[in-house]
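stuck on this one:
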Amino acid sequence: MNWRVITWYIGISLLLAAALMTVSGIVACCTSGDTSRNPLLFSAYVTGTAGFFPLIFVRKGQHKLSFKEGNCIVVGAWLLSCLFGMLPFLLYGREFTPINAIFESVSGFTTTGASILNDIESLPKGLQLWRISTAWEGGIGIVTLFSMFTGRTDKTTLYGAEISNVAREYLFGVKKTSFANRMLITYVALTLVTFFSLKLTGMGWFDSVTNAMSACSTCGFCTRNASIAFYANPAAEIVLTVAMLAAGVHFGILFLAFIKGRPRYIWKSETIRVFLCLVGIAIVIVTADLMAKGNYSSFSHALRDASFQVASISTTTGFATQDTTLWPPLSMSVLVICSLICGCSGSTSGGIKVDRAILAAKGIYRKVKLAVTPNGIYLVRVDGRTRSGEQVSDAYGYVFCYLILMVVFAAVNIALGLDFTTGVTASIACIGNVGPGFGNVGSMSNYADFPAVLKATGMIEMLIGRLEIFPILYLFRSIRNS
């Protein structure tokens, strides 16, 4: 591998982080009494210097990136962005001990939304904006963002290493170099539409911006201790529900549906139909359970809370309007299932993804039919296209690895002192980039009381889940063979 070229590209990712730090620092400078201006601007200087160094002293040349190099750039860019992203938190101090600072940074960049903060509202605006900027950058993908500034061939290699194959399948026939562009255009447009819609509901400018960025990145970071429950605004909850569901849909299909004016593509996609139907079924079950056992006297109130929380968990956003740890067992069980499967590939949501669940389910159904009628010819079709045996096997492999890692990290959590509910749901929440779980990490709780070792394992889980497991495995294999 050409380490000089790898260093050059990672430098660009740090410049992108430095630019967002600078914007947050400018906001801090424009806000009276904001004590985060110096930490933000100094961190931007340090991060920018680290990013400029390889660009000045390393000659990129005409080297064509290989897959191994592209994969190393992806993993390296994510790790170093998280590392430098902790600097503003660390320099600000207070609740941000070294382990807490890196935890908050990793949680933001991976769009997990798990926090160690007990008093979010005490943070100055500049630092709050940086906290949510990490999520917005991580939502679309760090490498996808900076690949906009690279050559055509390198761009294809880079986003190919960051974006899973199952996500790219849905734009069959579209030029590969256009794929990342379309995702970015859709992401920015969705954020702007959500921002203006929230402003129309009466939300303030700063809260509208930050909540729009958080919803569209499906992170769930909020500027309020009580999350979205603070606003008690049904109109804002509707806007955020729609935004979260949109962010959980493949951005390439959203591009065709709205920017290209072809809305029929939304319902034409089998994956999106299944996703929305599963969300609808979950809402019906939770609403009925809340009415029967959740002490809800009003159907509209139960439907409102059920719709928002199901949409929030299904898209791995983690916003909250209620403390779901107080809900009946059936409702909590439905939310746990939602946090496992989650949204569609090509979106900003985490989890196993509906696409892989459909592929695996249809692959199992095909095996059952072949066992009964061995001479039959049965194909696995998703969205009208036949999927190869290799694609089905990839889905099996990913689901298997995902569940094994989830169980292993849950066992670690329990072995190191967490109760069963907290340990299992924290593992599901971290690897799925969901954020809240149940027990001591419920929708109105946080990870502040976790011991340092469990915060470290949680960060590992978040990164594995955000990079979708295999890039980490590819990197270890590449280093071993180099």
Observations:
- Residues 14 and 51 are 5 Å apart (CA to CA).
- The two ends are 7 Å apart (CA to CA).
- The chain is about 65% helix and 0% strand.
